[in-house]
Amino acid sequence: MIIAILAAFSGAIAVAAGAFGAHGASGAAAEWLKTGAQYQLVHVVAALVAIRMEARGPAWLFVVGAAIFALTLYAMALGAPRWFGAITPIGGALLIAGWLWLAWSARS
Questions:
Q1: Domain locations in the chain?
Q2: pLDDT of 33 above 80
């Protein structure tokens, strides 16, 4: 299933970004990398759980939302303009929507 494959790749990216944030970056860049990695990795697990619950919609929102959220932070950490930070909340909104959708799916 494509969503599981994307989640697995997302997990690998999160670990690499977190490691770089912990050992290869400093200041705001390190914090952005660590924050992005934390959110991305948590939502990889959430996506895999959602798949097991047969809640594919929330799983997609977790993977896409985490990608937007984390990748904008990673981009800024690597030198992208600060206005990329204005895109980050779009990913956060998708993550929130995924959690609400998952709650709705689990109600029965």
A1: 1-107
A2: yes
